[in-house]
Amino acid sequence: MFRMAAPRLALCVCVLMLAVFTLTEGLRGAGPRRCCFKFNEREVPSGRVIGYMRTSQRCPNPAVLLRTVAGPRQLCVRPSATWVKNLISYLDTKAIPGETTNL
Fold first, then answer.
1. Key word Signal present in the record (predicted)?
2. What is the domain range of residue 25?
């Protein structure tokens, strides 16, 4: 009798573990779309930047992604850098009311 119950018990435990894993992964939601691990340290001229976006708070490093006139590639920069703060202020004041400069 125990020989038949052991495989059923093992199967039930596996299904239960899979269900718990699936549920906990689903509750975490999708991860951040983009995080930065390397940073551009050189100042980017304000005339070359057309927008910016802050990375998710779930990223290990706080960062700002700059969108430039050069195309779809984005540059990771440190939000604590003085030139980045000045650039963000410039972009925010340049924004047309009702539109956002953030990507």
1. yes
2. 1-30
Q: How far apart are CA 69 and CA 95, in angstroms?
A: 16
The CATH number of the domain holding residue 100 is 2.40.50.40
Which amino acid type is present at position 45? P
Instruction: Tell me the range of 13-27, 60-74, 77-91 where mean pLDDT is highest.
Output: 77-91
Could you give the C-alpha distances from 49 to 56, 66, 86, in angstroms and in order?
20, 7, 12
Residue 18 shares a structural domain with residue 40: no
Strands 74-77 and 49-54: unpaired
Same domain for 44 and 24: no
What are the tens digits of pLDDT across the range 2-34?
566 666 766 656 555 555 555 555 455 565 678
